[in-house]
Every structure is written in structure tokens, then in C-alpha cells.
Amino acid sequence: MNAQLGNTANVGNQITNNLSNAMDKLPSQESMQQGIANLGNTLQNTTSQLSNTFSEFSKQSATVPEATTGFLQSNTIIAKFAFIILVLIGMLVLLNLGVILISILFGPSDSPYLINGMIDGNNSMVVRQDPKQGAATTILRSNNEDSGAEFTWSSWLYINDLGNQDEKYQHVFSKGDGQFDSVTNLSSMNNSPGVYLEPKTNNLHVMMDTVKYGDTNTSVVVENMPIKKWIHLAIRLQNKIIDIYVNGTLSKRIVLSNVPKQNYSDVYIAQNGGFNGKLSSLRYYNSALNVFEINSIVRKGPNLTVKDGNLNTNYFSYLSNYWYYSKTH
């Protein structure tokens, strides 16, 4: 009986010990409270992060319309700037067109007549080049294009008689300073060009000065010009080449050694007694006319409209070209 009681007591002690060990393994109350606190902190942090995420998204959503508006405003500024640029370009184009139109209407002609009619070869004239002076006929200098300077002088000549002075050249016309040698009557400088009749001959002397002082290769002579007939003379310059056309036919050519010298001086006609004959249709062209254009001028004939009140037109024979042109024009 005592043995059974002892066994029962042992069993009871083992159960008590086991329960005590189990209770020791369970977390304490403080541990439970700390775990609950940690769980609360975790939930709070998660909630805070989610709140911050939604706040940032809301801010970005709110700034999208502002960004779109700014982008649209920037486009409007660019469009306005481009429009202003286009307006300025249009104004510049219109301004250039206006300047061109004004120069065409009121500016000097590219191919002006210096004598649009007929004058006596002894009638001294000066065609002024300064547009500020009255009755000026301004000749624009040739532009140096790819082929160099170029121009053409066109005129009709009627030579009545040869000169009777041994050394004096008869002056037809020249563009220069108007200073002539007292003996030869040749312009001392600035023949651009200069046209003369040689003393006591019917040879035509054409001069074209160059930029080199003392250059001797500046003149060309056309021999045996017709007497008592209307003849057309064309002086054509292209770069350094001077061609002399008589009645539409190339008569002489000279290649200058240096660049031709242009000037802004006046045009002098029939100076110091001029020549014994008539001059008609003196014209300047700002380009080198080709042979077809020159022959077109020849076919039209001289303009016999009298520009000189002292010119006597009654003594010409009906066999002369002057009589023929006066009856048909």
C-alpha cells in the first residue's frame, strides 16, 4: 500500500515538473507585450509608407496640368517668335523690292542715250555724270562679273572732210577729265574710252587707258573710214579685250596688257573744234553686246532728229546717205 502511494507521489512529482518546464518555455508577459508593441510599430510604419506613396502620386498628378500649361505656353512663345521672324523677312523682301522699283523708275538707266538724235560735229557738248547737276546722264561703272568689266559704246558718224592740221587729232567723244593736249588735242589721261580722227587722214583712233601709268598698249587704229557716209561705230570691251565694229563687222581687236581704267568723269563731245561731220545716237550699254545685237542696231540706222538748232540739213546731196535717211525716217 505504501509502495503504491510512493509511486503515485512520484508520478505527481513528474507531472508537476513537466508543467513547470512547459510554463518556463512559454514567453513571459513582458515578452508578449514587447511583441505586440513591435507588431504595432510595423503596422504603423507600413501605413505611413503607403500614405507617403499616395501623397507623392497626388502631388505628381496635381503638377501634370501645370506642366502641360507651361509646355503649351512655351510653344506659344516659339510660335510668336517665328511669326515675328517671318514678318521681318517679309518686310526686308518688300523693302528690297521697293528699292529696286524706285531705282528702275527714278535711277539712272543701265543703257542710257547721251545723244538721242543728231548734232553737228563742231558742236561742243559736255554730258555731266553727277546726278545732282541738272540734265545729267549718269553712266554706271561696269560691275566686275566673272568675265571682268564689260561695256559697249554705240554711235553713228558722218565724216564730211578730213582735218587740215598736221598734228591735231579731231575729237569725237571721250569720257575723262577733259584735259587735252594743246598740240595733239588728245586727252592726257582718263580716256575711257576716247575716240579721235587722226590728222589729215580718215583713220579712227580709239584709246582706252589702263590702271598702269605709262602703259603704251592702250590704243587701236581703224584705217580708211568711209567719207560722206553714215557709219556705225561700236566699241566693245570685255575683260581686257577691245573689239571695234564698223557697220556690224569686226574691224579691229586689241588685248590690253592691264586692267582697263574706269572713271566717274563727264563725257566730252566734239571738244576744241570737234570734227567736220555729224554725230548721232551716242549710247552706252553696261554689257558687252554680241554681234547679233550690234547688227540689230545697225539695221535701225541713225536717229536723224536734229538736236542742234544750228545744224544745216539742206546742203546734202540726194545721193548721200543722210538725204536717204532724212527722207525715210
Automatic annotation (TrEMBL):
Membrane-crossing ranges are 81-106
* UniProt keyword annotation of Transmembrane present: yes
Listed A to Z, the keywords are:
Membrane, Transmembrane, Transmembrane helix
PANTHER family attached here? CHROMOSOME UNDETERMINED SCAFFOLD_146, WHOLE GENOME SHOTGUN SEQUENCE, OOKINETE PROTEIN, PUTATIVE-RELATED
| Identification of the protein by name | LamG-like jellyroll fold domain-containing protein
